[in-house]
Design a protein that fits this description.
- It is built from 7 helices and no strands.
- With 156 residues, it is mainly α.
- It has one domain: Ferritin (Up-down Bundle).
- It is elongated, with a radius of gyration of 16 Å.
C-alpha cells in the first residue's frame, strides 16, 4: 500500500489542531482545576496532554485509513461525518468543563461524545477494521473521563 503523505499529514493535523486550540482556550482555567476535589484514581495533571496527544494522533491515522479504504462513498461519508461530529463535541467539552465549570452539563455532553465515538468506531469498522480498533483506547479514555467528570461534579 502506497502512503499518500500529504493526506496522512492533513488527517493527523486536523485532530491535533482541534485539541491544541481547545487546550489553548482552556489553559487559563487550569489553576482553578488544580484546586478542585477529585475522585479516587485521578491521574496526575501531566498525563492528560500526553494521553490526548496520542489519542489525537490515533484519530487522525484512523481517519486516513478510512479515507484511503476501498469502501464506498456512503460508508466513507458517514464515517467522516461521525468523525467531525465527535471532534466537535470533544472540542467543546473541555470549554464547558474547564472554562465555564458546567460539570453536570459537561457530563451529559460527554455521554453524547462517547455515543458519537462508539458510532464512529462502528462506522469505521465497515471501512477499515484497524481504523475502528485503534479508536478503542479513545472510547475507554472518554469513559474514564466521564467517571472523573461526574466525580468532580459531585465533589465540588
Amino acid at each position: 500500500m502506497k502512503i499518500n503523505w500529504k493526506l496522512l499529514l492533513i488527517c493527523l493535523a486536523i485532530p491535533l489542531a482541534v485539541g491544541g486550540l481547545s487546550a489553548l482556550i482552556t489553559r487559563s482555567a487550569m489553576d482553578e482545576f488544580k484546586e478542585l476535589a477529585k475522585p479516587p484514581l485521578s491521574p496526575p495533571d501531566w498525563l492528560f496532554p500526553v494521553v490526548w496527544g496520542i489519542l489525537y494522533l490515533l484519530m487522525g491515522f484512523s481517519l486516513y485509513l478510512v479515507l484511503t479504504s476501498r469502501s464506498g462513498s456512503t460508508v466513507i461519508g458517514q464515517s467522516v461525518t461521525l468523525f467531525a461530529l465527535q471532534l466537535f463535541f470533544n472540542f467543546f467539552w473541555s470549554i464547558f468543563f474547564f472554562n465555564f465549570s458546567l460539570y453536570y452539563f459537561s457530563f451529559g455532553w460527554l455521554i453524547v461524545l462517547w455515543a458519537l465515538i462508539f458510532a464512529m468506531v462502528v462506522s469505521f469498522y465497515r471501512a477499515s477494521k484497524l481504523a475502528a480498533f485503534i479508536n478503542i483506547p479513545y472510547l475507554i479514555w472518554v469513559a474514564f473521563a466521564g467517571y472523573l467528570n461526574l466525580g468532580i461534579a459531585i465533589l465540588n
